[in-house]
Amino acid sequence: MGKIKDILKYRAAGLSQREAAAAAGVSLGTVNTVLSRIKEAGIKDPLARKEHELGAIVYPTPRAASSPVSAGKRPEPDMEFIHKEMQRPGVTLNLLWEEYKAAHPDGYGRSQFCARYFTFRKENEVYMRKAYKAGDQMMVAIAGCCMYNASASISWVISPLPDAIRLMAFRPWPL
C-alpha cells in the first residue's frame, strides 16, 4: 500500500499513467485501479490523506459474511442417499443435483456436487484389481436386456438381470 501515494504524486506532477507505473515500479493496471477507485470515492485531495486511509479506500477489506454461502457453510449433500439412488435405473447425477439444488438454493453448484460425489465414491467403494494374461479370458460388458450368440454348434443367451438365470438356452439356432 506504500505505492498509492507515490502513484498519486507522479500523476499530480504531470506524468502519464505509463510513466507513473514505471516510476512507482507497479503495473499499468495497478495505476489504473488506484486512480479509478480514488475517483469513484469522490476524494478531491487524496494527497492530503494518510497512506492507510487511501489503502482502505483503494483496497477495502471484504465485508463480514452474512449469508451461509459466503461464510462457507453450504448445506452438505447426503452422499449415502445419493449413492443408493445412483444404483437405481434411470437415475443420473444431474437429476440428483437438480433435486438437491431445488431443496437447497444456496447449495453447491453442479461441478462441486459431482466432485464431492466422486470423492465420496472413491473413498467408500472397494475396488478389486486383477491381473489377466493377454488372450487368456474374454470379458463382455452387456448394455441392454440380453446378449445373444448364434453359432453353428451351440447357442446361448446371457441376461444381466441379477435374479435371472445367467445361461438361459442351450439349443442350436435354426440355420
How would you portray this structure in words?
The structure is a single chain. This protein is mainly alpha-helical. It has three domains: 3-58; 79-124, no CATH class; 138-175, no CATH class. It has helices spanning 3-12, 17-24, 28-41, 51-58, 79-86, 93-103, 110-124; strands at residues 147-150, 155-158. It has a two-stranded antiparallel ribbon with strand order 1-2. A hairpin with a 4-residue loop joins strand 1 and strand 2. It starts with a helix and ends in a 17-residue tail after the last strand.
Structural class: mainly alpha
- State the end-to-end CA separation: 88 Å
Provide the spatial order of strands within the biggest beta sheet.
1-2
**N-to-C order of helices and strands:** HHHHHHHEE
How many domains? Answer: 3
**Counting H and I runs of at least 4 residues, what is the number of helices?**
7
Major pleated sheet = 2 strands, antiparallel
Categorize the overall geometry. elongated
Strand content: under 5%
List how many beta strands DSSP finds: 2
User: Percent of residues in helical segments?
Assistant: 40-55%
- How confident overall, as mean pLDDT? 78
Point out poorly predicted stretches: 64-68, 163-173
Concise synopsis of the structure shown:
This protein is mainly alpha-helical.
Entry keywords:
single chain; 175 residues; mainly alpha; 3 domains; two-stranded antiparallel ribbon; 7 helices; 2 strands; 42% helix; elongated
List the helices and strands and how they pair.
Elements: H1 3-12, H2 17-24, H3 28-41, H4 51-58, H5 79-86, H6 93-103, H7 110-124, E1 147-150, E2 155-158
Antiparallel strand pairs: 1-2
Helix pairs in contact: 1-2, 2-3
